[in-house]
Write a structure and sequence with these properties.
Blueprint lengths: L1 H13 L3 E8 L7 E7 L5 E9 L13 H18 L5 E9 L2 E9 L3
Parallel strand pairs: 3-4
Antiparallel strand pairs: 1-2, 2-3, 4-5
């Protein structure tokens, strides 16, 4: 949860990304949520999903991002872009925290 997001934010900011938003939620039921929204040095808007698991059971953190979760992330990203009017290249990253091991997956999936 919150602690994993904090660790992920520290890590990506250490890599030169600028925080634009955190825990962005779309209104209404069935919407989406975006853990972190950042801007890379080249201007790309980076939508980051943070997933944490205390152990590798059931496939670990990576296996917890199924098609429905990706769809909600894309929806939240589209909503944020429309709401803010930002027009920029975008990408979807995932930060996985399995136990104490952090892995940043740039371009983990696309909006298609």
């Amino acid at each position: 949860g919150q602690q994993a997001e904090e660790l992920a934010l520290e890590d990506v900011q250490g890599q030169g990304l600028e925080r634009l938003a955190r825990s962005y939620k779309t209104p209404g039921r069935g919407g989406g949520e975006m853990d972190l929204i950042l801007r890379a040095e080249d201007g790309t808007v980076v939508f980051v999903e943070v997933r944490s698991r205390s152990h590798q059971g059931f496939g670990g953190a990576a296996h917890s991002i199924g098609a429905m979760k990706r769809q909600r992330i894309v929806f939240a990203a589209q909503h944020w872009l429309l709401h803010t009017g930002v027009q920029s290249a975008c990408r979807f990253d995932v930060v996985l925290l399995d136990g104490k091991q952090l892995q940043w997956m740039c371009g983990a999936f696309d909006a298609a």
